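@channel sequence for tomorrow's demo:
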Amino acid sequence: MKKTKVSVKENQTTEHAIKKQSIFELSLTKFELLHLRDLMGILLPPDGGQTVSQSLASAEDRSLIESMLWDKVVKLCTSAKLPMESEAPDYIIAPTAPPPMGVFQINQDLNLQTSSAATGFLPDQEEQDKKPTEEK
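structure tokens (generated this afternoon):
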């Protein structure tokens, strides 16, 4: 089934405007649908009050679209007799190891040390890397 594309202004996020857009078919196997369900439901720290999907939708101002997509996934899972709600497994993002840390002197150039921390180079190594360009 092919639908014609209707141009919709970006700032219109009503359900009516979304339905006017082109629809694309996507065939999923049972395991692909399970993976999509699990991926959309990964909980974020600290309290698991929001999923990765919801967080991305919020950041991109696509909460309505995310909600509609989740409703479609739920309907497909239900019709495929796949576990949902409390029967489905929960996944959460959590640290698996302490983050790498370093000690830096802050009474010198803070920007130099911040960039050193971001790139992983020690300040002495960074200065050695800069010497050939400073001589030119």
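heads up for whoever presents: Residues 97-130 form one domain.
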